[in-house]
Amino acid sequence: MKKRFGKTDLMTTPIVYGCMGGAGAFGAQEETDSIEALREAFNIGINFFDTAEAYGGGYSEQLLNKALGDKRSEIVISSKVARENLAPDRIIEACERSLKNLGTDYIDIYMLHWPNRDVPLADSIGALKKLKDDGKIRAYGVSNFGKEDIDDALALGDISVNQLPYHLFYRTIEFEVQPKCEKAGVPIMCYSSLMQGLLAGKYKSLQDFPVDRARTRMFDHRKWPEVAHNEEGAEATGQELLDELWAIVGDTGMSMEELAIGWLKSRPAVGGVIVGTRNGEQSRGLKKLLDVELDTSVLERLTKASDPLKQALGSNIDMWGKGRTR
Ligand SMILES: NC(=O)c1ccc[n+]([C@@H]2O[C@H](COP(=O)([O-])OP(=O)(O)OC[C@H]3O[C@@H](n4cnc5c(N)ncnc54)[C@H](OP(=O)(O)O)[C@@H]3O)[C@@H](O)[C@H]2O)c1
């Protein structure tokens, strides 16, 4: 089930466990639940864990250490340096902090979390190269790098990954970034693969989706107080997609998570599909996703159903529309 991750020598499962929600990104969270969620993800066979210093200010990394520190040699860890820390000396310091939080002496994949044009990218990549030469990280990469940023990064270094928002409700990377990653042999790690729970089969209507999660470019900024962008969104088109997904669930007998994750696994350049959970029971629910593969006819139906929303949202890859990507 494990495959070599891009050009690295890391062997990883197709499902990556996302550690953000366990640190409280989605509201009140018991530590015992977060730890059980991590352990159960490992127990069902996931060996790849994605975290970041930004998730709970290091708390997410500490939780990973608490839950699976004794399994270090059996797991692959990716972490990220926050965009305000991309100056070279700050990257080195941030990496040392993350190593301490994680209770390890190496990080398998270390990423720049978001681009920061106040710091020359060559300087940031230089620091990543140094960390790799010093054995503190095994590979490095980027996250949220759009069509221009990824060109700059590819010209400068040995980029092992681009972590990007990608799911049936957000196919913006397909216009320009995904083809570039595919051509360069850079695997994509998809995030928000279940659209923060919308694709976990709990909602019949977009109106029922929690307001603090309804902040992406699909939602109308005038309706939802949490929204940071100024776009009118595409809620009617999104609802049509949700309705069609429920119809496909009914016709195939598959769960919505299986459809969502099976579709992502089939897409070009995808090297890992990140999914986050909040407790042990949800983590056990990921077992079926490790092996899921969809028939071509189902894949085509999902692609067709999500095409109108893809066209409506266009090529802006910043899911929250905060103007951080290019
Ligand atoms: N690079 C970046 O900028 C970036 C940004 C965002 C995320 N990420 C990464 O991607 C990871 C995942 O993305 P995400 O946190 O946005 O969300 P996600 O994986 O799309 O959705 C997570 C939510 O799905 C629901 N869920 C998952 N498994 C379930 C199950 N078996 N049964 C029922 N519900 C289930 C839970 O919802 P409830 O909470 O309602 O229970 C959970 O909180 C993060 O942890 C992080 O590692 C990276």
Can you characterise this structure?
The chain has 326 residues and is α/β, with parallel strands linked by helices. The chain has a single domain (3-197, 257-292), classed as NADP-dependent oxidoreductase domain (TIM Barrel), CATH 3.20.20.100. The chain has 11 helices and 10 strands. It has an 8-stranded parallel beta barrel. The protein has a two-stranded antiparallel sheet with strand order 1-2. Strand 5, helix 3 and strand 6 (107-112) form a beta-alpha-beta unit. The chain starts with a strand and ends in a 13-residue tail after the last helix. The relative contact order is 0.15. NADP nicotinamide-adenine-dinucleotide phosphate binds next to strand 10.
What descriptors fit this protein?
326 residues; alpha/beta; two-stranded antiparallel ribbon; 10 strands; binds NADP nicotinamide-adenine-dinucleotide phosphate
